[in-house]
Amino acid sequence: MFSRRKPSRSCLADIEQYFQQPPPQFLDLELAVCWVLDCLLKDDNYPSGLLQELTQTNPQLRLSETVLQQALAFLEQQGSITTYSKRCPSRGRPRRMLHLQAEARQQAQKLMTPWHSWLSSHQLMLS
User: Fold this and answer.
1) CA–CA–CA angle 77, 114, 83 (5° rounding)
2) CA dihedral sign, ordered 76, 80, 84, 88
């Protein structure tokens, strides 16, 4: 039986256009955790800085602030990250910086293989 749902595209060319310019892909919690770990393995960062970096390095990927906060809460609960305040000259109040604990680095490194594999496998769809 065919679906009675009306297609959101008006012609086949619209569907072709969809594949040429796919919509952004939102990261779920697991992928968000991997993204955060990938960034923090390189250097400490702040939450909105993580979102900016994702937009710059992977423009087709998106991360909602809600999922980012869930990922950060998960990592804090696991004891993988800590936070500290850092005063920035261009900003009035201190930033909440995120730091990957030394004890969590090895496990974070282990997750980078499947994370980078996921990124590579989705690269064709994302470019």
Assistant:
1) 30
2) negative
The CA–CA distances, whole Å, from 54 to 2, 23, 68 equal: 39, 16, 11
pTM of the model: 0.81
pLDDT tens digits, 62-109: 999 999 999 999 999 999 999 999 987 777 788 899 999 999 999 999
Which whole-number Å values give the CA distances from 95 to 11, 40, 91, in the listed order? Answer: 49, 15, 8
Helices 47-57, 29-42: crossing angle, 10 deg rounding: 100
- In this model, does residue 12 exceed pLDDT 90? no
d(CA 13, CA 118): 29
* Per-residue pLDDT, 9: 65
For residue 23, which of 77, 79, 62, 80 has the smallest C-alpha distance? 62
Task: Render 66-97 in DSSP notation, one character per residue.
Answer: HHHHHHHHHHHHTTSEEEEEE--TTSSSPEEE
